[in-house]
Amino acid sequence: xxxxxxxxxxxxxxxxxADLMRDLLDVVCEAGRVSPATTPSAVLADLNAAQGQxxxxxxxxxxxxxxxxxxxxxxxxxxxxxxGMTTTALFAHFKKIAPVEDLRFFLRGTLSPELRARAxxxxxxxxxxxxxxxxxxxxxxxxxxxxxGIPGVGxxxxxxxxxxxxxxxxxxxxAAAEAAAPVAVEAAA
Length: 189
Known about the structure:
The chain has 3 domains: about 1-80; about 90-150, no CATH class; about 150-189. The chain starts with a helix and ends with a helix. Helix 1 (about 1-30) packs antiparallel against helix 2 (about 40-65), helix 1 (about 1-30) crosses helix 3 (about 65-80) and helix 2 crosses helix 3 (about 65-80). Helix content is about 80%, strand content about 0%. The protein has about 190 residues and is mainly alpha-helical.
């Protein structure tokens, strides 16, 4: 029973550390994407929040040897020296970690709350999980684009829009060439 409790505590600790690090990464990423409308005080508030979360993680690591051990184990498992690997071993390593890296990359994007919760619930991602997530993301994105009046690529409405844009560009180029032509004649006289 003591071992089960220790394992449960270790799992809870790993989850807490992962949650804190994800929150910290989200705050820092959001602070990095500052729009011109964002006030400096809002950016400072975000950075202060990130600093507070980092302080909580550091405090947890200093006060809990178990937390430090879990973090060290995770870092040791995540750090792999690929410089001495053969080509075959290197490809095998990347094939092994690809689903996890794909999921991490997927979570960096802008997602609906439902899709983000679905992606974060995946403990050990498999390629099939990622295919389903990407399909759901595409369906959401396409629905949002259609609702905004953006035609689907290859649709008749898209083709009409493309042809109208090309025609407008050609007429602008012709008008610019026509406007430049009298200047050349006057310069020659």
